[in-house]
Amino acid sequence: MALTSTTNLGPYEIRSPLGAGGMGEVYRSLDTRLDRTVAITILPGSFANDADRLKRFEHEARVLSALNHPNLLSIFDGGTQGGIHYLVSKFLEGQTLRERLGSGPLPQRRSTDYAMQIASGLSAAHDKGIVHRDLRPENVFITRDERVKILDFGLGRRTRAAAVTAEGRL
User: Which residues of 100-138 are buried (b: 16+ CB within 10 A; e: fewer)?
Assistant: First the structure.
C-alpha cells in the first residue's frame, strides 16, 4: 500500500516515499509534535497478514529500541493505525555503502574508518546480546557527514544468554 502525502499516522505526516526494501516501504515524514523530519517504515499490507513477517517487523522495533549507539539506526516510535504497522526512526541523508561502492573503490583510510564504525556498532549490539545476521552493503548507510549507520535488524537475534537474561532467568 503506497501512502500519499495526505496520509497521517498518529502525529506523523507522510511527505514523500524514500524507498522500499525486504521489510517495508520507507517514507520521509514530519513529526508534528516535535517539528522534525523522521523516516517511517511501514509493513506492506501484503505482509501485515503474514504472522511471520509481522513478528519480524515487531521484533526489529524491539531490537533497535534496545540499542543506543551512534552507528546504529535510532528508533523513536512505532504503532499501528488502520491496519498499517509502522516504525518511526531517525531520518538519514546520504547513501548505502552499496551505492557508495558503485562510485568506485574507497580510499584505504575511508575503508578503515567505515570498518571501525561498523565494528563499533556491532560491538554495541553484541554487548546487548544482539547479533545482526544480515550485514551487507545495502544495510550499511553512510550519512553526509561520513557517519556509518547499521540498518535492518529484522533478522537480528538475541544470543541465548541475552534471551535468558531478558526473561529474568539469570
Answer: beeeeebeeeeeeebeebbebbbebbeebbbbbeebeee
